[in-house]
Amino acid sequence: MPNKDIETIEEYLEHGEWGIAFEVLRSAIESDKTTISHNDYIQIKEIGKYMGMDKDLREVFEV
Q1: How many domains does the chain have?
Q2: What is the domain extent for residue 40?
Q3: What tens digit of pLDDT does each residue of 6-21 get?
Q4: At what angle do helices 18-32 and 3-14 cross, to 10 degrees?
Q5: Residues 6 or more apart whose Cβ sits within 8 Å of residue 26
Q6: Three-class SS string for the chain?
Q7: Are 52 and 22 spatial neighbours (Cβ–Cβ below 8 Å)?
Q8: pTM exceeding 0.85
Q9: Distances (CA, A) of 57 to 3, 13, 28
């Protein structure tokens, strides 16, 4: 994942914008075709569920 995406995500997290950070993460993984491990997938999916993120938003993380 490009450093710019990581910096953007970190900035949103620092300002308590968890939902936007999650959306940016999802978008970055999808657009960059980033491969994530099964463990990372499970953690991201659970975080999305906990946050009440829409199922369609979480589906990009399917491995």
Answers
A1: 1
A2: 3-61
A3: 999 999 999 999 999 9
A4: 170
A5: 57, 58, 60, 61
A6: CCHHHHHHHHHHHHCCCHHHHHHHHHHHHHHHCCCCCHHHHHHHHHHHHHHCCCHHHHHHHCC
A7: no
A8: no
A9: 22, 18, 12
